[in-house]
Amino acid sequence: MKIVKWEQLPPEMQTDEVRKYYDILKKKRVSLFFKRAFDIVASLIMLVLLFPVFLILAIAIKFDSKGPVFYRQIRITQYNKKFRIFKFRSMVQNADKGSQVTVSGDARITRVGRVVRKCRLDELCQLIDVLRGKMTFVGTRPEVPKYTEHYTPEMMATLLLPAGVTSLASIYYKDEALLLDAAQDTDEVYLEQILPAKMHYNLKAIKEFSFWGDIKIMFMTVFAVLGKEYKGDHDDVTVKREQAQEETTV
Question: Would you write out the chain's pLDDT as a tens digit for each of its 250 residues?
Fold first, then answer.
Protein backbone atom coordinates (compact mmCIF):
# COMPACT_ATOMS: atom_id res chain seq x y z
CA MET A 1 0.00 0.00 0.00
CA LYS A 2 1.54 3.26 -1.14
CA ILE A 3 0.94 6.86 -0.21
CA VAL A 4 1.03 9.11 -3.26
CA LYS A 5 3.14 12.26 -3.42
CA TRP A 6 1.66 15.28 -1.66
CA GLU A 7 1.15 17.06 -4.99
CA GLN A 8 -0.95 14.14 -6.24
CA LEU A 9 -3.52 14.38 -3.46
CA PRO A 10 -6.87 15.93 -4.45
CA PRO A 11 -6.89 19.71 -3.79
CA GLU A 12 -9.36 19.38 -0.92
CA MET A 13 -6.84 17.22 0.94
CA GLN A 14 -3.79 19.44 0.45
CA THR A 15 -4.30 21.33 3.70
CA ASP A 16 -2.24 21.94 6.83
CA GLU A 17 -4.68 19.82 8.83
CA VAL A 18 -4.09 16.79 6.59
CA ARG A 19 -0.34 17.37 6.25
CA LYS A 20 0.54 16.28 9.80
CA TYR A 21 -1.21 12.93 9.29
CA TYR A 22 0.33 12.54 5.84
CA ASP A 23 3.82 13.00 7.29
CA ILE A 24 3.12 10.34 9.93
CA LEU A 25 2.03 7.77 7.32
CA LYS A 26 4.95 8.52 4.99
CA LYS A 27 7.25 7.23 7.73
CA LYS A 28 5.32 3.95 7.99
CA ARG A 29 6.21 2.47 4.58
CA VAL A 30 7.09 -0.97 5.98
CA SER A 31 3.84 -1.24 7.96
CA LEU A 32 1.86 -0.07 4.92
CA PHE A 33 3.55 -2.73 2.75
CA PHE A 34 2.63 -5.51 5.18
CA LYS A 35 -0.86 -4.06 5.57
CA ARG A 36 -1.58 -4.45 1.85
CA ALA A 37 0.14 -7.84 1.63
CA PHE A 38 -1.99 -9.07 4.53
CA ASP A 39 -5.14 -7.68 2.89
CA ILE A 40 -4.48 -9.62 -0.32
CA VAL A 41 -3.53 -12.95 1.26
CA ALA A 42 -6.11 -12.94 4.06
CA SER A 43 -9.04 -11.79 1.90
CA LEU A 44 -8.28 -14.39 -0.76
CA ILE A 45 -8.08 -17.23 1.77
CA MET A 46 -11.24 -16.08 3.56
CA LEU A 47 -13.22 -15.76 0.34
CA VAL A 48 -12.41 -19.37 -0.50
CA LEU A 49 -13.15 -20.70 3.00
CA LEU A 50 -16.35 -18.68 3.42
CA PHE A 51 -17.84 -19.51 0.03
CA PRO A 52 -20.38 -21.97 1.59
CA VAL A 53 -21.49 -19.22 4.00
CA PHE A 54 -21.86 -16.79 1.10
CA LEU A 55 -24.03 -19.33 -0.71
CA ILE A 56 -26.30 -19.92 2.30
CA LEU A 57 -26.71 -16.19 2.89
CA ALA A 58 -27.51 -15.60 -0.76
CA ILE A 59 -30.25 -18.24 -0.75
CA ALA A 60 -31.73 -16.95 2.53
CA ILE A 61 -31.80 -13.35 1.30
CA LYS A 62 -33.49 -14.28 -2.00
CA PHE A 63 -36.16 -16.39 -0.26
CA ASP A 64 -36.83 -13.75 2.40
CA SER A 65 -37.58 -10.71 0.23
CA LYS A 66 -37.56 -9.37 -3.29
CA GLY A 67 -34.39 -7.79 -4.59
CA PRO A 68 -30.75 -8.59 -5.33
CA VAL A 69 -28.45 -10.53 -3.00
CA PHE A 70 -25.88 -7.76 -2.89
CA TYR A 71 -26.48 -4.15 -1.97
CA ARG A 72 -24.21 -1.89 -4.02
CA GLN A 73 -23.99 1.67 -2.78
CA ILE A 74 -21.66 4.54 -3.63
CA ARG A 75 -19.19 5.12 -0.79
CA ILE A 76 -15.99 7.13 -0.38
CA THR A 77 -12.55 5.59 0.00
CA GLN A 78 -8.87 6.58 -0.26
CA TYR A 79 -8.15 10.03 -1.74
CA ASN A 80 -11.85 10.94 -1.66
CA LYS A 81 -12.63 8.54 -4.51
CA LYS A 82 -16.04 6.96 -5.04
CA PHE A 83 -16.58 3.21 -5.28
CA ARG A 84 -19.53 0.81 -5.14
CA ILE A 85 -19.32 -1.17 -1.93
CA PHE A 86 -20.38 -4.83 -1.65
CA LYS A 87 -22.78 -5.69 1.18
CA PHE A 88 -25.27 -8.50 1.60
CA ARG A 89 -28.69 -6.86 1.35
CA SER A 90 -30.31 -6.66 4.79
CA MET A 91 -33.06 -4.16 3.98
CA VAL A 92 -35.98 -4.00 1.57
CA GLN A 93 -35.26 -2.92 -1.97
CA ASN A 94 -34.85 0.85 -2.49
CA ALA A 95 -34.48 1.40 1.27
CA ASP A 96 -31.71 3.94 0.66
CA LYS A 97 -34.23 6.44 -0.70
CA GLY A 98 -34.88 7.43 2.89
CA SER A 99 -32.38 8.23 5.65
CA GLN A 100 -28.97 6.66 5.11
CA VAL A 101 -28.44 5.86 8.78
CA THR A 102 -30.29 2.98 10.41
CA VAL A 103 -31.98 2.76 13.82
CA SER A 104 -32.36 -0.52 15.71
CA GLY A 105 -36.07 -0.99 15.01
CA ASP A 106 -35.92 0.23 11.42
CA ALA A 107 -38.92 -1.13 9.51
CA ARG A 108 -36.83 -1.33 6.33
CA ILE A 109 -34.75 -4.21 7.74
CA THR A 110 -35.88 -7.65 6.57
CA ARG A 111 -36.26 -10.73 8.80
CA VAL A 112 -33.05 -12.29 7.55
CA GLY A 113 -31.51 -8.84 7.60
CA ARG A 114 -31.93 -8.51 11.36
CA VAL A 115 -29.85 -11.63 11.93
CA VAL A 116 -27.34 -10.67 9.27
CA ARG A 117 -26.84 -7.18 10.72
CA LYS A 118 -26.66 -8.36 14.33
CA CYS A 119 -23.81 -10.74 13.48
CA ARG A 120 -22.33 -8.28 10.96
CA LEU A 121 -22.58 -10.93 8.25
CA ASP A 122 -23.71 -8.27 5.77
CA GLU A 123 -20.13 -7.03 5.68
CA LEU A 124 -18.52 -10.39 4.86
CA CYS A 125 -18.66 -9.74 1.13
CA GLN A 126 -16.55 -6.62 1.63
CA LEU A 127 -13.69 -9.10 1.40
CA ILE A 128 -14.19 -8.62 -2.35
CA ASP A 129 -13.52 -4.90 -1.94
CA VAL A 130 -10.45 -5.62 0.20
CA LEU A 131 -9.02 -7.92 -2.46
CA ARG A 132 -9.73 -5.27 -5.13
CA GLY A 133 -7.85 -2.67 -3.09
CA LYS A 134 -10.90 -0.46 -2.66
CA MET A 135 -10.94 -1.24 1.05
CA THR A 136 -8.65 -2.57 3.76
CA PHE A 137 -9.36 -4.72 6.80
CA VAL A 138 -8.76 -1.93 9.30
CA GLY A 139 -9.56 1.67 8.50
CA THR A 140 -12.22 4.35 8.67
CA ARG A 141 -15.60 2.93 7.70
CA PRO A 142 -16.66 4.14 4.23
CA GLU A 143 -19.26 6.90 4.34
CA VAL A 144 -21.66 7.99 1.63
CA PRO A 145 -20.85 11.27 -0.17
CA LYS A 146 -23.77 12.90 1.64
CA TYR A 147 -21.77 12.71 4.88
CA THR A 148 -18.21 13.17 3.63
CA GLU A 149 -19.32 16.53 2.24
CA HIS A 150 -19.59 17.61 5.87
CA TYR A 151 -16.06 16.51 6.80
CA THR A 152 -13.90 19.14 8.47
CA PRO A 153 -10.42 19.73 6.97
CA GLU A 154 -8.93 17.45 9.66
CA MET A 155 -11.47 14.68 9.02
CA MET A 156 -10.27 14.57 5.41
CA ALA A 157 -7.05 13.01 6.74
CA THR A 158 -8.94 9.74 7.25
CA LEU A 159 -9.08 9.47 3.45
CA LEU A 160 -5.32 9.08 3.20
CA LEU A 161 -5.90 5.32 3.56
CA PRO A 162 -8.53 3.03 2.01
CA ALA A 163 -11.86 2.68 3.80
CA GLY A 164 -11.91 -0.17 6.31
CA VAL A 165 -14.08 -3.16 7.15
CA THR A 166 -13.58 -2.44 10.85
CA SER A 167 -12.02 0.18 13.10
CA LEU A 168 -11.84 1.32 16.70
CA ALA A 169 -14.80 3.60 16.00
CA SER A 170 -16.80 0.62 14.71
CA ILE A 171 -16.03 -1.31 17.89
CA TYR A 172 -16.91 1.50 20.30
CA TYR A 173 -19.99 2.43 18.27
CA LYS A 174 -21.24 -1.06 17.45
CA ASP A 175 -24.57 -0.05 19.03
CA GLU A 176 -24.80 3.10 16.93
CA ALA A 177 -28.42 2.32 15.98
CA LEU A 178 -29.43 2.47 19.65
CA LEU A 179 -27.99 5.96 19.93
CA LEU A 180 -30.14 7.06 17.00
CA ASP A 181 -33.39 5.48 18.17
CA ALA A 182 -34.60 8.50 20.13
CA ALA A 183 -33.53 11.04 17.52
CA GLN A 184 -36.18 13.00 15.66
CA ASP A 185 -33.72 13.78 12.87
CA THR A 186 -31.28 10.86 12.56
CA ASP A 187 -29.14 12.56 9.92
CA GLU A 188 -28.70 15.66 12.08
CA VAL A 189 -27.78 13.65 15.18
CA TYR A 190 -25.37 11.52 13.19
CA LEU A 191 -23.59 14.51 11.65
CA GLU A 192 -23.45 16.66 14.75
CA GLN A 193 -22.82 14.08 17.47
CA ILE A 194 -21.88 10.59 16.32
CA LEU A 195 -19.67 11.35 13.32
CA PRO A 196 -17.36 13.76 15.21
CA ALA A 197 -17.01 11.25 18.06
CA LYS A 198 -16.19 8.41 15.66
CA MET A 199 -13.67 10.63 13.90
CA HIS A 200 -11.88 11.08 17.22
CA TYR A 201 -10.92 7.39 17.02
CA ASN A 202 -10.33 7.35 13.26
CA LEU A 203 -7.81 10.18 13.48
CA LYS A 204 -6.22 8.65 16.56
CA ALA A 205 -5.77 5.40 14.60
CA ILE A 206 -3.79 7.22 11.92
CA LYS A 207 -1.54 8.88 14.50
CA GLU A 208 -0.83 5.51 16.12
CA PHE A 209 -0.91 3.38 12.96
CA SER A 210 1.09 0.16 12.84
CA PHE A 211 0.59 -3.22 11.20
CA TRP A 212 0.40 -5.00 14.56
CA GLY A 213 -2.04 -2.39 15.79
CA ASP A 214 -4.31 -3.39 12.90
CA ILE A 215 -4.09 -7.05 13.90
CA LYS A 216 -5.08 -6.12 17.46
CA ILE A 217 -8.15 -4.23 16.21
CA MET A 218 -9.19 -7.23 14.11
CA PHE A 219 -9.12 -9.47 17.18
CA MET A 220 -11.04 -6.83 19.16
CA THR A 221 -13.68 -6.82 16.41
CA VAL A 222 -14.16 -10.58 16.68
CA PHE A 223 -14.58 -10.36 20.46
CA ALA A 224 -16.97 -7.39 20.08
CA VAL A 225 -19.17 -9.38 17.69
CA LEU A 226 -19.19 -12.22 20.25
CA GLY A 227 -20.48 -9.82 22.89
CA LYS A 228 -17.47 -8.28 24.59
CA GLU A 229 -17.91 -4.61 25.51
CA TYR A 230 -15.09 -2.14 24.99
CA LYS A 231 -15.00 1.31 26.54
CA GLY A 232 -13.49 4.16 24.57
CA ASP A 233 -11.62 7.15 25.89
CA HIS A 234 -14.07 9.62 24.36
CA ASP A 235 -16.46 10.90 27.03
CA ASP A 236 -19.63 10.54 24.97
CA VAL A 237 -19.24 6.93 23.90
CA THR A 238 -19.98 4.93 27.05
CA VAL A 239 -22.46 7.45 28.47
CA LYS A 240 -24.63 7.61 25.36
CA ARG A 241 -24.56 3.85 24.87
CA GLU A 242 -25.66 3.19 28.46
CA GLN A 243 -28.40 5.82 28.21
CA ALA A 244 -29.67 4.29 24.99
CA GLN A 245 -29.68 0.79 26.45
CA GLU A 246 -31.57 1.98 29.54
CA GLU A 247 -34.21 3.67 27.39
CA THR A 248 -34.80 0.53 25.32
CA THR A 249 -35.28 -1.64 28.42
CA VAL A 250 -37.79 0.69 30.15
Answer: 889 999 999 999 999 999 999 999 999 999 999 999 999 999 999 999 999 999 999 998 888 888 888 888 899 999 999 999 998 888 876 666 655 565 555 678 888 878 887 777 888 899 999 999 999 999 999 999 999 999 999 999 999 999 999 999 988 887 676 667 666 678 888 888 889 989 999 999 999 999 999 999 999 998 988 888 887 765 554 444 444 444 444 4
Q: How many Cα atoms sit within 13 Å of 183 on the Cβ side?
A: 24
Q: Which residues of 149-185 are buried (b: 16+ CB within 10 A; e: fewer)?
A: eebeeebbbbbbbbbbbbbbbbbbbbbbbbbbeebee
Backbone φ and ψ for 195, nearest 5 degrees, come out as: -60, -45
What are the φ and ψ backbone dihedral angles of 107, each rounded to 5 degrees? -70, -15
Query: What distance in Å separates the CA atoms of residue 110 and residue 31, rounded to the nearest whole number?
Result: 40
